[in-house]
Amino acid sequence: MISKASACVATAALLFQGLSSAAATTGGCQALAAAGLSSQIYYPADANYIAREASYWAANAPLSPLCIVQPRNTAEVQKVVKAIAGSSGNFTVRSGGHGHWRGASDIHNGVTIDLGLFTDVTVDKKTMIASIGPGPNWATVFKTLEAQGAMVAGGRDGGVGIGGFLTGGGNSYYTGMQGFGADNVVNFEVVLADGRVVNANAKTNSDLWKALKGGSGNFGIVTRFDMQAFTAVPLWGGLSAAERKYGDTIITELINFTNNNAKNPEDALIVNFTYNPGMFTEIVVAMVTVDVKGAVAPPAFEQIAKVPTVLADLTTRSMSNIATSYLLAPGSQNVWYSLTFRADRDIVSHIAALHDEMVAKLLTVLPAADFTTQCLFQPIPAYIAQDRSNAKGGNVLGLDAVKDNALLWLITAAVQTEEQLAIITPYISELSAASNAYAKAKGGAVDWVYLNYADGSQNPLASYGAKNVKFMKDVAKKYDPKAIFQNKVTGAFRLNRI
Ligand SMILES: Cc1cc2nc3c(=O)[nH]c(=O)nc-3n(C[C@H](O)[C@H](O)[C@H](O)COP(=O)(O)OP(=O)(O)OC[C@H]3O[C@@H](n4cnc5c(N)ncnc54)[C@H](O)[C@@H]3O)c2cc1C
């Protein structure tokens, strides 16, 4: 409750800032109106504007666009892009609004292009190609596809949006079997900076196809994702949690699991050292164990299953069920940082201990009930990029250059107010820096930052490696020679700010 109220106050304050400087920079909105899009433009006093700004997942994500435009179809996106590209205004693109840092997918003094009306989800039963607009969330996509016996490699939290997830990589329960979400996009429909609409796939505009698999919104606006679907079968698993004292045993199993996952790619594991006072007063080790083929309690989790739990919700269920069972609630102020490490017991153990220390310190500066943390490890064994991604045409993430079995690490904190966010942010960035320093000293740092988890101060695109950066820049130059999608988008991760 407190978080929603403070989000409204913050949003109102930002609206005022936006209004006061509006006169100088209304270029984009005026150009949209002149292009005949008035019915789809929302200004700060409009109910639709207020509702769309309130629909971002993180309370720190909404900014103060001069106007929001909600195109209804690809032809309108073409008009929108042409109008804004030819105007003096800046813009940003927003799909599901789950970008967690300020500036990820909203803008001050510019236009937010909101793709929320692109809600189509269909599947061709013959080709098993699912065509998905950037507007819905994954829960809706899964429910729609399941009704037709199909499934795709989408997000694990059903609230997450399509556009950011798929253009940033996309780690799902199916990654071991199918590669990243982006690897499963067989065709992107894209509106380019000059207003042309093109398809990008293995045969047509294949360089753009590859660049969009990890390169985010640097090349255009994706108006449809055609994904290779597969037959939906019930999966098994869910959430469990153990007392912190079992951490070392669980870390040992996390490392074993990661190193052996190539033999059982249908199994997925997440290990999360978390302080969540709404559920437990102490730090616990939460685990998500999933078998996407539906095997009950498969051998890969045999040792983990022996750890005594304080919570266990392991069952046979649909993808849409698991994706809606543990939704991370919207409305908090959030800070996320992400790094990648070699799967090394000592590194994980050290970082978990640093997290313990950080939570102890935070308890001296914030009310115990006002914050949550997650210190979360996800296996990224080498076979995923080398076998799965490459077999599907490759992407620009650069993970195929990582020879080690790695762990994707995410540290998050969620608080109630902007003031608390200012307090907590240095703790998270320092924990990130200390973890990186320790892993480096141990020779276990992997120079890769996952764009979809990174803070705005991090540099994920650069971490893809020089070859991929050059490739993405060449592709951007070819399809957007005036660099509209870099120069006029002031937030988000952009190639010109690497
Ligand atoms: C609660 C929660 C759970 C999550 N779980 C997972 C998970 O399981 N696995 C995982 O990999 N990630 C996960 N994430 C991270 C998630 O993938 C990113 O936040 C992602 O950006 C969300 O996509 P979105 O469309 O909602 O983002 P938005 O905030 O709408 O957009 C993010 C970025 O993508 C760009 N973009 C969006 N749509 C388009 C488009 N159509 N064309 C071009 N550019 C576009 C935007 O301009 C922006 O830069 C999670 C995030 C949250 C908050």
Automatic annotation (TrEMBL):
It comes from the Eukaryota. PANTHER family: BINDING OXIDOREDUCTASE, PUTATIVE (AFU_ORTHOLOGUE AFUA_1G17690)-RELATED (PTHR42973), FAD-BINDING PCMH-TYPE DOMAIN-CONTAINING PROTEIN-RELATED (PTHR42973:SF53). The keyword Oxidoreductase applies. InterPro entries: FAD-bd_PCMH (IPR016166), FAD-bd_PCMH-like_sf (IPR036318), FAD-bd_PCMH_sub2 (IPR016169), FAD-linked_Oxidoreductase (IPR050416), Oxid_FAD_bind_N (IPR006094), Oxy_OxRdtase_FAD_BS (IPR006093). The lineage of its organism: Eukaryota, Fungi, Dikarya, Ascomycota, Pezizomycotina. Pfam families: FAD_binding_4. GO terms for molecular function: FAD binding; oxidoreductase activity. Keywords: FAD, Flavoprotein, Oxidoreductase, Signal. Residues 61-232 form the FAD-binding PCMH-type domain. This is FAD-binding protein. Residues 1-22 form the signal peptide. Belongs to the oxygen-dependent FAD-linked oxidoreductase family. It comes from Glarea lozoyensis (strain ATCC 20868 / MF5171).
